[in-house]
Design goal:
- This is ABC transporter ATP-binding protein.
- GO terms for molecular function: ABC-type transporter activity; ATP binding; ATP hydrolysis activity.
- Pfam families: ABC_tran (PF00005), TOBE_2 (PF08402).
- Keywords: ATP-binding, Nucleotide-binding, Transport.
- By secondary structure, the chain is of the alpha+beta class.
- It folds into two domains: about 230 residues, 3-Layer(aba) Sandwich (Rossmann fold), CATH 3.40.50; about 110 residues, Nucleic acid-binding proteins (OB fold (Dihydrolipoamide Acetyltransferase, E2P), Beta Barrel), CATH 2.40.50.140.
- Helix content is about 25%, strand content about 35%.
- The chain has eight helices and 23 strands.
- The strands form six sheets. The chain has a six-stranded mixed beta sheet with strand order 8-9-10-5-11-12, with helices on both faces. It has a five-stranded antiparallel beta sheet with strand order 15-14-13-16-23.
- Helix 2 crosses helix 3, helix 2 runs parallel beside helix 4 and helix 3 crosses helix 4.
- The chain is elongated and about 85 Å long.
Amino acid sequence: MAKLILKNVFKRYENKDKKKKKAVNPLAVNNFSLETEDGEFIGILGPSGCGKTTSLRMIAGLEDITDGEIYIGDMKVNDVDPKDRGIGLAFEDYALYPPLSVYDNIAFNLKAKNVSADDIKKEIDRIAPMLKVEELLEMRPAKLSGGQKQRVNLARAIIRKPKLLLLDEPMSHLDGKMRQVLRIELQRLHKEIKCTTIIVTHDQLEAMSLADRIAIMKDGELQQFGTPLEVYDNPVNEFVAGFIGEPPMNINTVKVEKTDKGTFFKFVDADIAIPVPDRYLPVVSEGMKVRLGVRPTDLMIGDENSKGSDAKISVFENLGEERKISFRVGTEFLTLVTPDEKRYKQGDPVKLEVKADKTHLFDVETGEVIRAK
């Protein structure tokens, strides 16, 4: 095991603007700093193009660093060859050698290091049951399913006994059921090999279920780094709030209105009003516009005695174990999720309630969280 430390890491690609005939230097990774603990499972999460895979490739040594420092354990690895960094890397597309058997694919790196055949067999006998590929050793990659290929890919990465295991979108080519199976296998594998592990993914469910801590990136910059519970319950900005959670958080523009009945968040373009929680009263004022965030699970339909807002159902979806109900708010929707088995239809009037202590506020201009006092 080894700690991974990134200090103010930048990656700039030199591109030529054909129209202006000059070099432009977009930052693929911008001042990225991160520190892990020994044996920790870290997820780097973000949309396509956010810089997460570029960051992984710099850690692996497959991309040069424009600026900054990367340490694996106590060793600064900026100028260290990939083979000498003590890493195992499992690629998104498996990258298995078609002419070789599964046995020889797994053994390839050890053979390149002139490890004896007996020692290679001993290691494969140890690794194969761990990845459940012992019955596939004589087969070739063309005969394997996607899940089996990824298991072989992982076996090849960990047979080197790496200090750091890097996983680049390892489940992106698998179907939903197989992804669920492999997530469980990865959790088990991580506990068995006790290796610091970094997984890059755009799937927030993968990151939330696997990682001890998650680094969320956008446009090459780190937005937030924390446990799954921290980033879910206390997002630092609107981007993180909307990216984490399924269904995503409702985020709508509201205006603060004071009446003789109290202070309310009034939805723009909709007759829905929510009482302002006491904790927000010191940081909002009459007429102020903010972005209000509410998780779908923190919205409820009240009974006949409810004091909630009047609303009409726009869409009702029965998803089996839960129901998803949406209300039109101008050009957007406000969505709630409930286990209640009651059925509704479009146009049904209901009382909409909100768990006030679960709401989030964001600045209209910057998207940064507005902290309650």
